């Protein structure tokens, strides 16, 4: 069981850059539980590409997929230590995996990711569009055109590019899962551009689900509330996240492991009649959508 705790030790967390380094966080995010029960069959021999798979939610999902028998492609920007740690965790589960470093905001790189995946594993069954960045700003006036474009390229353009690149290799029964956010529904005072990208990703999920229904490819999303990931200390001042997550009904932030099972479910046969939907994991916040 995850305890009701807030991050309160900020050592080694200064000057983090987006999207953040997990190994520098204190306390470290929880990406696995000893009580995890699986039969290793729900995703057996499936091949999953997970963007932002090196840390945070992406690491927890990568490990959960591996425990269910999937082969994992971890795509990350430049956090090599985090990516290699996640790969070690996957291999410890006797599952195959590879890491690919690069900028998902560039379409050529997204095409390269899929090419390398096909060369290594011969197929792609699951795409998890999870990579993201965010930059807090007190006013829209502070958001430069460069930041706006950068945030959209990472958070929404990458999902378009990866989907376009992977679709020629997908078949009936495959799926796409997007990581959106509660900010798409409630907004956020200091994350205007980030919230906008998550709103776009939510609409992308719904529209793409309709578009791919005839192909038998499902498209769904997960909308986290506050989650203790590298993005948090990389985005906010220490004073702003000492009580991070305390305002939700459960009065704490989620740990990445608490989201992972929802991705496993959406990728599995158990969700075979679910498409165009969003699972809200936010500690009790009511979202009317």
Automatic annotation (TrEMBL):
InterPro entries: NAD(P)-bd_dom_sf, Sc_DH/Rdtase_CS, SDR_fam. Keywords: Oxidoreductase. CDD domains: SDR_c1 (cd05355). Its EC number is 1.1.1.47. It is an enzyme of class 1 (oxidoreductase). PANTHER family: NADPH-DEPENDENT ALDEHYDE REDUCTASE 1, CHLOROPLASTIC, NADPH-DEPENDENT ALDEHYDE REDUCTASE-LIKE PROTEIN, CHLOROPLASTIC-RELATED. Belongs to the short-chain dehydrogenases/reductases (SDR) family. NCBIfam families: PRK07231.1. This is Glucose 1-dehydrogenase. It comes from Clostridium sardiniense (Clostridium absonum).
């Amino acid at each position: 069981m995850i305890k009701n705790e807030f991050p309160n030790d900020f050592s080694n967390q200064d000057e983090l850059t987006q999207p953040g380094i997990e190994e520098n966080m204190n306390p470290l995010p929880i990406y696995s539980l000893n009580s995890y029960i699986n039969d290793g069959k729900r995703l057996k021999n499936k091949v999953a590409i997970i963007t932002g798979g090196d840390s945070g939610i992406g690491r927890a999902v990568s490990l959960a997929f591996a425990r269910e028998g999937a082969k994992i492609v971890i795509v990350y920007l430049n956090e090599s230590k985090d990516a290699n740690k996640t790969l070690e965790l996957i291999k410890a589960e006797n599952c195959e995996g590879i890491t690919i470093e690069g900028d998902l905001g560039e379409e050529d790189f997204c095409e390269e990711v899929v090419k390398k995946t096909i060369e290594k594993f011969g197929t792609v069954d699951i795409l998890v569009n999870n990579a993201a960045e965010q930059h807090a700003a007190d006013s829209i006036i502070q958001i430069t055109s460069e930041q706006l474009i950068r945030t959209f390229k990472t958070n929404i353009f990458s999902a378009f590019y990866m989907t376009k690149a992977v679709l020629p290799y997908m078949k009936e029964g495959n799926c796409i899962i997007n990581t959106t956010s509660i900010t798409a529904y409630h907004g956020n005072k200091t994350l205007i551009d980030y919230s906008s990208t998550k709103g776009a990703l939510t609409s992308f999920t719904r529209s793409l689900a309709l578009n791919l229904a005839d192909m038998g490819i499902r498209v769904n999303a997960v909308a986290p509330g506050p989650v203790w990931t590298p993005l948090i200390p990389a985005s906010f001042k220490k004073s702003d996240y000492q009580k991070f997550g305390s305002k939700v009904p459960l009065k704490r932030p989620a740990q990445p492991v608490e989201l992972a099972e929802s991705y496993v479910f959406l990728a599995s046969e158990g969700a075979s009649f679910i498409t165009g939907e969003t699972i809200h994991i936010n500690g009790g916040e009511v979202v009317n959508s």
